[in-house]
Amino acid sequence: MVEMHKVRVYKSEENLPREDQLAHKIATVAADPVEVSDEVTEMIVNRIIDNASVAIASLNRGPIVAARAQALAHAPSSGGKGALLYGITDRVSPEWAAWANGVAVRELDYHDTFLAAEYSHPGDNIPPILAVAQHVGSTGRDLIRGIATGYEIQVDLVKAISLHKHKIDHVAHLGPSAAAGIGTMLGLDVETIFQAVGQALHTTTATRQSRKGEISTWKAHAPAFAGKMAVEAVDRAMRGQTSPVPIYEGEDGVIAWMLDGPDAAYEVPLPAPGEAKRAILDTYTKEHSAEYQAQAWIDLARKLHREHPEVTDPQNVASILIRTSHHTHYVIGSGANDPQKYDPTASRETLDHSIPYIFAVALQDGTWHHVDSYSPERAGRPDTVALWHKVTTEEDPEWTRRYHSLDIAEKAFGGSVVITLTDGTVIEDEIAVADAHPLGARPFGREQYIAKFRTLAAESVAPEEIERFLDAVQRLPQLGAGELDALNIVAKEGVIDLASAPKGLF
């Protein structure tokens, strides 16, 4: 059973009791010793595989190289043995492992997602929780409990509280969820988790300019920063340090000044006492390396490529109109009014957030590749640019309604497309959810997660290391104290050149 918790702003003289504050309620859920179901455990294993897949595929990309170099400058702290970094065997302090691995997981925008009132990639919870687990020698069961909480809290916040409406970046829900997950894993008391959640929120609020205009490399760093802050917040809270109270509801708090203001009111769903944490089952991963709103459109473009090959030639096409949800139109569509979304010289991060570009390339190629589809050569191809510039988007109220629906059976992330050819022919089609979505044409299961991992790791990881990792991660519930190092994945010799990393302060 889910309990709905009313959240509003309180004046200081109202003196909101601690147990009625959202951060305290989150901490209470985190401290609940309820067991994790087999179904949730199975999905947690899937998502650890998924994170490793996308991290290993990005080991030599600039943001990862820089973040890894920063982490390697910070030796394990005295509180444990340190944590491991994707691709190598070196140990670093856990907050820096959370940082470097968080960047690696997010860089390709290729792991799981949950979309409701807010947007999220809840797999971002795994790097900080796993880093602390390796550092302190947690068991596989401990880790599972921590990740289940991280997903639960982030998804519940995302269901209830919109950040993007006020141009606040979505990682403001990640800091509290990761702190809560670490608290669960370590078996911390409610008060300690409460203080950690508050500190994690306070330090991870930032604007959405990181996802606007010329999108920079910070896009991959933002969730990693939230994870790092969560680790540090837990450390401070364990040492008895306190946080701003009430962090959400205070008259100078996050809601009053960053979100809906002093008259705001939300209803946040949280599991009732003794209720299992199942929110991970509401989330979904990506088959393609692109912003989640693009997943269904890539699948529809592949279908149109097969059924109507004439639309791949811009000389045959007068216009392509995509009717979709408010978010897709205004954030990654032509409604964003970002000229960079039509610029062949734009960064990968920008192209990743351009539905006109992604639909045009997938329409021409009938496929999508996490590297080749973003290459400067691919983006600059004259016939692609010509077709790309014929693609526009507009908001359709029905697709917006379905996007926000709480009914999983009708919730949709796609839309309809109208392709008008130069001879007057009109081709129309639509898609509600991506093929890999649980309600899609080819839902992802363990087999698909493993196939994705094998594909992305094939060039960088030795076959025996691939098999070792897959064996270990699928035995996660049985892994004992100190055995979670087995969840790291090491690249083949020569794949990573640590000496070539850029120099900084550390």
From TrEMBL:
It catalyses: (2S,3S)-2-methylcitrate = 2-methyl-cis-aconitate + H2O. Keywords: Lyase. Gene3D superfamilies: 2-methylcitrate dehydratase PrpD. PANTHER family: 2-METHYLCITRATE DEHYDRATASE, 2-METHYLCITRATE DEHYDRATASE-RELATED. Belongs to the PrpD family. This is 2-methylcitrate dehydratase. Its EC number is 4.2.1.79. It comes from Sinomonas atrocyanea. GO terms for molecular function: 2-methylcitrate dehydratase activity. Monomer. Residues 21-265 form the MmgE/PrpD N-terminal domain. It is an enzyme of class 4 (lyase). Pfam families: MmgE_PrpD_C, MmgE_PrpD_N. Residues 288-476 form the MmgE/PrpD C-terminal domain. It comes from the Bacteria.
